[in-house]
């Protein structure tokens, strides 16, 4: 199966809909934004490949856990797209990480100072931008924005898990 830029754009959008992991506090090893982002991308990719295989009447054998990019590429029979897949992961991760650098003192990107409405607006406005970028075929911009908005989304989820533990 050949994966086009459009597939990766759609996959990026699905990433937002699938949820993400949270940081762990005092419950074993902690994970960072880059690891959370990669895990979410790999999970959504496996879900997407499974769905596509079912729709095409093919069997799908999921890769072993813990998921790796190479394992997902093999399971999805997408060796010819491996470079673009790995690049897409890096673009999303890099833009996620940049939030801690370029928006370090912007409370809304970290849900600091009770900026919940502003943080939510960053996520929902970003989702709107991603959808529009995908419609226009600007998948690189969609991936960049996805990386940016997954950061506050991860922080929000992390805070939710702490206060509901």
UniProtKB/TrEMBL annotation:
Residues 1-22 form the signal peptide. Keywords: Signal. It comes from the Eukaryota. Residues 67-157 form the VWA7 N-terminal domain. InterPro entries: VWA7, VWA7_N. Pfam families: VWA7_N (PF25107). This is VWA7 N-terminal domain-containing protein. The lineage of its organism: Eukaryota, Metazoa, Chordata, Craniata, Vertebrata.
């Amino acid at each position: 199966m050949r994966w086009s830029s459009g597939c990766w754009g759609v996959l990026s959008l699905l990433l937002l809909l699938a949820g993400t992991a949270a940081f762990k506090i005092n419950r074993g090893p902690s994970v960072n934004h880059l690891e959370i982002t990669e895990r979410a991308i790999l999970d959504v990719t496996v879900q997407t490949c499974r769905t596509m295989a079912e729709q095409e009447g093919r069997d799908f054998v999921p890769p072993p856990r813990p998921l790796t990019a190479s394992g997902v590429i093999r399971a999805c029979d997408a060796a010819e797209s491996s470079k673009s897949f790995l690049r897409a992961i890096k673009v999303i991760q890099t833009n996620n990480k940049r939030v801690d650098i370029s928006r370090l003192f912007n409370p809304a990107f970290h849900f600091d100072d009770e900026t919940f409405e502003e943080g939510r607006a960053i996520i929902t406005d970003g989702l709107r931008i991603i959808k529009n970028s995908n419609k226009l075929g600007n998948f690189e911009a969609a991936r960049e924005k996805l990386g940016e908005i997954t950061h506050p989304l991860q922080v929000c989820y992390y805070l939710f898990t702490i206060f509901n533990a």
